[in-house]
Amino acid sequence: MNKPSIVSGIQPTGPLHLGNYLGALKNWLEIQNSGKYDCFFFIADYHSITEDYDAQEKRKQIFELACDYLAAGLDPKKSIIFIQSQVPECTELAWIFNTLTPVAELERMTQFKDKSQRQAKNINMGLFAYPILQAADILLYKGGLVPVGQDQVQHVELTRDCARWFNNKYKVKYFPESKPLLTETPKIMSLLAPENKMSKSLGDKHWLGIDELPELFAEKIGKAVSTPAGIENLKTIYQAFKRKMAGEFNPEKMAETKKIIAKGIADYFADFRAKKEKFKEDKKFVLDILAEGRQKAQAIAQKNIKEIKKIIGVE
Ligand code: TYM
After folding, report:
1. If we measure between CA atoms, which residue out of 31, 32, 46, 119 comes closest to residue 86?
2. What angle do CA 51, 146, 84 make, to 5 degrees?
3. Neighbours of 154 (CB within 10 A)
4. Ligand 1 mean position, distance from CA 123 (Å)
5. From CA 229, how far away is CA 190, in angstroms rounded?
């Protein structure tokens, strides 16, 4: 392994929406298939427990996200696919970064501010230190480029800062200065409130799940608002799946255009849906892939954390 590393993850919090796909996953596939990078794609389960959740449900969400990854085309022969919590060296590195990060830097994080409002009764330390764990995810594998959506840019900037703080404090050039890698569609907006990014936290009708049934695509897109911002958002979505669209985007005829978009997206994800069902039925196959990913990731993580502990003087 000596190509530049690419690292990214998604939280297992339920179905993937169109924003997750167009902002991140689609890019991961292109990066993986380019053959130019060592790719690390993981399931960010430790991040997801900073929100209220149900333990039984979480187990399912982790497994389903693995099925999503595989059905979308992540390939264990080309990428290391694993579960974050299964490589505990990551939380060790997060602790080291905790000791380097000024509290004021974390207080600036817009996601922390948003989530603190949304879950006012559960503003836990994990939520506050969330970007530090993300920095550890990335830097444990010396990730240079981080393919994410717009909403994660601030976190990747903090990752770069952690690398700098570490390198400066210990007078080494150990970590790379990570940079976000955005797609042409880094911010897909809500269908009903297009001034907000598409997100599951807004409510069911605001987002499109990529494994939803074609009827739901038609219903949800049919109800999408047709304000200028709403039309702009639908146009972005239309363009992203253009090769599947059987008709023009006509802002004068939105009812018709919406039908074209819904059908185009349903067609685009038909293969994904079928593959996901197959993976869900073959639990052992999926778990074996995750076990293999864990082994590969951990071999690198263990080597790196040893070097890091030497640098900081604890080993
Ligand atoms: P998460 O799980 O919220 O989202 C996963 C990915 O989807 C992108 N995304 C969007 N892109 C475009 N439009 C949208 N409306 C939209 N909504 C979400 C996100 O930017 C993200 O790329 N903190 C991360 C998970 C994480 C991570 C990491 C990412 C943990 N460790 C290390 C990269 C590297 C998160 O919450 O993503």
Report:
1. 46
2. 45
3. 16
4. 20
5. 10
Beta carbon of 8 within 6 Å of any ligand 1 atom: yes
Two tokens, residue 302: 């263990």
Tell me if 264 sits within 8 A of 278, measured CB to CB: no
What is the average pLDDT across 49-65? Answer: 98
Residue of the CA atom closest to atom 9 of ligand 1:
20
Phi, psi of 238 (to 5 degrees): -55, -50
CB 82 within 8 A of CB 46: no
Confidence of residue 1 (pLDDT cuts 50, 70, 90): low
Share of the chain above pLDDT 70, in %: 100
Report how far ligand 1's centroid is from the alpha carbon of 24 (Å): 7
Atom of ligand 1 nearest to the CA of 134: 31
Radius of gyration of the chain (CA): 20
